[in-house]
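Format notes (please read before filing issues)

Several people have asked whether sequences and structure tokens are stored in separate files. They are not. Every record keeps both together, in the order shown below: the sequence lines, then the token lines. Line labels are part of the format and must not be stripped during preprocessing.
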Amino acid sequence: MRYVVIIEEGENGFGAYVPDLPGCIAAADTKEEVKKLIHEAIEFHIEGLKEDGEPIPKPSSSIEFIEVAA
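Then the structure lines:
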């Protein structure tokens, strides 16, 4: 499965979350590190859902880029 991951840069590093997996988040100092950590978080989140007998949400989010004049 492929999930949309949102990565945001903040004052002290990077954060990432998965809209289709509420509570699945990661934070790190670098973009590369947060990408690695969110990948691990997704796997951990899905494994937890399986262990709890919960359904695994199918990816339903999509991403579009909208250009605006700045």
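For reference, the curators noted about this record: The first strand starts at residue 6 and ends at 10. The mean pLDDT is 97.
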